[in-house]
Write a structure and sequence with these properties.
By secondary structure, the protein is mainly α. It has a single domain, classed as DksA, coiled-coil domain (Four Helix Bundle (Hemerythrin (Met), subunit A)), CATH 1.20.120. The chain contains 4 helices and no strands. α1 runs antiparallel to α2. The mean pLDDT is 88.
Length: 118
């Protein structure tokens, strides 16, 4: 993390914590609104089930993002945040600012995506 200033690290930490709080807030709101279905016809029931399915899918994705955020906060504590997990090169602040949960530098991320596409 030597390539990042204390101010940059602190700004990224605040961003990660803000992201985490927003996810938790949305999850709480979704849990409140996804109470049991009562009344309505088959179309209403189908729409309710579809909406519930989409909410659960969203919650699953956000749970993964929460894990990633916690992982990045841990890396900050350990002093390894902002270092590419593949090549060990520093991840530029500009990339971290755009994607604070980035674990790979641009070059390694592009290689990963190319390999996934094959």
């Amino acid at each position: 993390m030597e390539h990042l200033t204390k101010e940059e690290v602190e700004e990224l930490r605040r961003t990660l914590l803000r992201m985490k709080e927003e996810i938790l807030k949305r999850a709480r709101e979704n849990l409140k609104t996804s109470s049991s279905f009562e009344g309505g016809d088959e179309i209403d029931r189908a729409n309710y089930q579809r909406e519930n399915f989409l909410n659960l899918r969203l919650l699953s994705r956000e749970a993964q993002l929460l894990k990633r955020i916690d992982y990045m906060l841990l890396k900050m504590e350990e002093g390894t945040y902002g270092v590419c997990e593949n090549c060990g090169e520093p991840i530029p602040y500009k990339r971290l600012k755009a994607r604070p949960v980035a674990r790979l530098c641009i070059r390694c991320k592009e290689e990963e995506e190319l390999n996934e596409g094959q």
